[in-house]
Amino acid sequence: MKTVATRGGYAEQYFPNSETLMPDEMRIVALGTGRPFLRRSQANASWLVELGNGDKFVFDFGFGSQMNFTALEIPYSSINAWFATHLHTDHVGDFAQVWVGSWAGGRLQPLEVYGPSGPEKKYGFRHFCEMQMESYAWDTDTRVGALPAIGAKLNIHEFDYAKNQTIYEENGVVIKSFPAVHQFDGPVSFRLEWNGLSFVYSGDTTPSQIFIDNAKNADVVVHETFNTIEQLMDRSGYDERTARAIGTYIHSAPEEAAVVLREVNPRLAVIYHFFNDFDTAPEMQQKVREHYVGPLVMATDFMVFNVTKDKIITRMTEFSDHVWPNKSKHEGFGKAERKPMLKMSDWLKKAQLFPKENSENGLVYKGKVG
Ligand SMILES: [Zn+2]
Ligand SMILES: [Zn+2]
Predict the structure, then answer these.
(1) pLDDT value of position 168
(2) Mean pLDDT across the chain, nearest whole number?
(3) Ligand 2 centroid vs 90 CA: distance in angstroms?
(4) β-pair type (197-201, 220-224)
């Protein structure tokens, strides 16, 4: 008999689309766990949360993270909403991919995005989205004739960064936002609650009482931490002032994050937002263990957490580098409305070897190849 390695009743590794979530189960996938300096092993911040009721949410979409998202081969139309903690590029840098990539990838409904306001309009999420969209005018205006026009549509939900409030409530899922203490007014952290399970995601924050109060006793708490001051000086070549500014003034040092985790006391604490390498991890862990002795995972990209009332299982995802869009929800593609294509100048058109005309019935060949 063939023996299959298992981990707490699950396959040893997680293969996307091979496991059905139980009705009372939550699955969390780390899509990006690194630092603003993008590298192949760790994309910028992003976390996917999938629920047993079929709902799916993405928290942050930093640079590179969306390549990890597509590796999971989830139909874009299955994502209920995308949430941004703040407007640093390592948290929202893949905006264009989330918007246009998902559209080209088959999304047949408007994109639902949530993000915080700022102390001024120009620092708010709505402004960020609108300016991004405007800057991509050539891109989207050339696409609406070929792709379903609905995919260009974005529903922007901007909420007050300073409030401790519910920003999403549907289908038994409650998502709350509360202020994060990160450099300037605007950043937030999130708490998702569903079916007696909870997931808290810090985004970027220095240790704060607000976080402790809102994360208390959650099932899974993902808290940021940066590499140690020594690592930043030695490996990144920062002077001590810069290292301290980044590692403690802007972010949580590992020993600081540990104090927060001790107070929060989650079923599982996850730290992310640092370069997690064989030669940095031991020192990071040591610093955390100075103050926090509970269950701990040091995240890296493609870690997957299955959460139920009874247990939390942590594994790695096995994926293909050669994925295509998941087409299981593409049946509406042909019928979806298009807009007229933009017309290029006649002199450009005349240079075309095999001219095609865009008519009511679609693209019509005017000449023959060969
Ligand atoms: Zn940040
Ligand atoms: Zn960050």
Answers:
(1) 98
(2) 95
(3) 5
(4) parallel
